[in-house]
Amino acid sequence: MQTQLGLVHFWQQGDLVTHATAILLLLLSVGSWALIVGRFARQLRINLACDRAPEAFWQARNLHDALAAIDAADRTGLFADMARAGAHARDSYDSESGLGAGVSLSDALTRSLRNRMLAAQASLETGLTFLASVGSTAPFIGLFGTVWGIYHALIALSGSTSVVLDKVAGPVGEALIMTAAGLFVAIPAVLAYNALTRANRLVMAQLDGFAHDLHAYFTTGARRPASADSSAQAAAATPTLARQGA
Q1: How far is the C-alpha of 33 from the C-alpha of 54, rounded, in Å?
Q2: 226 domain residue, yes or no
Q3: How many folded domains does the chain comprise?
Q4: What is the distance between the alpha carbons of residues 136 and 58, in angstroms, rounded to a whole number?
Q5: Domain membership flag for residue 1
Q6: pLDDT-derived band of residue 245, with 50, 70 and 90 as boundaries?
C-alpha cells in the first residue's frame, strides 16, 4: 500500500487540471529560485561596492583618477555611473541649450544625479515584482489544487454505502500535496522579497549620501563635512534626490 501511494501514483491518477496546476507551481518555483540566487549573488557585489567605491573615489588625487578608481572598485556600476553623470553634467553645463540653458549649475547637477538615482532604484528593484507575485499567488494556486483533490474524493464516494480507503486516499493525498507545494513555492519567495527590499533601502540611502557629496564637490569643489555625511547615512530609506523628483 505504501508503494502504491507515492508521488508517481498521485501523478498518474491526476487529470489535466491537476497536472497543469502542478506544472505551474513547478515553473514558479524554478523561476523564483533562479531569481533569488541571481539577486543575492548580485547583492554581495553591491555590498562590496558600497564599502569600497565611495572611498576609492574620494581618496584619488584628481577627478580623472577618481573616476578610474571608482570604475575599478564598483563592478555593479551604481556608484561609478553616478559619479560620471555628475562629471558630465558639470562639464556640459556651459554648452547647454534649449530649456536647460536657464538653470543653474546646482539645478543641472541635481537633475542629472536624480535621474541616475531613479535608474539605480529601477535596477535594484528588478525581479521584486515577480517574487511578490509568486509569494502572494502560489498559496492560492495550491489551494485550488487542494479543492480539486477534495472534489475528486467526493466524486469517488458518491454512490458508495461505505467509505473505501482506496477510493479516497488518492484524492485526499493529492489535495494535501498541492497545499504543501503551494507553501513550498510561496515561503522562499516572500522571505527573499523582504530581505532584498531591506537591502535595497540601505543601498539607496548610501547612494543618496554619495549623490549629495558629489553635488557639493561639483558645485563648490569640496566634499561635505563629516557630520553631514553621518547624517545622510542615518536618513530615511527614500532618497532625498528621488523625493525632489516626485
Answers
A1: 32
A2: yes
A3: 1
A4: 44
A5: no
A6: very low
For the four alpha carbons of 185, 191, 197 and 203, in that order, the dihedral sign comes to: negative
Condensed to tens digits (0 to 9), the pLDDT of residues 199-210 reads 999 999 999 999
Q: Is residue 2 one of the residues assigned to a domain?
A: no
Cα dihedral across residues 53, 58, 60, 66: positive or negative: positive
What is the spatial distance between Cα 191 and Cα 58, in angstroms, rounded to a whole number?
A: 36
CA-to-CA distance for 144 and 199, rounded, in angstroms? 34
Residue 33 lies in a domain: yes
Q: How far apart are CA 79 and CA 66, in angstroms?
A: 12
| Residues 106-150: tens digit of each pLDDT | 888 999 999 999 999 999 999 999 999 999 999 999 988 888 878
Residues 178 and 131 sit within 8 Å (Cβ to Cβ): no
**pTM for this predicted structure:** 0.75
Q: For residue 19, what are the domain limits?
A: 9-245
Question: How far apart are alpha carbons 216 and 106 in whole angstroms?
Answer: 9
Q: How far is CA 91 from CA 25, 60, 62, in A?
A: 53, 19, 15
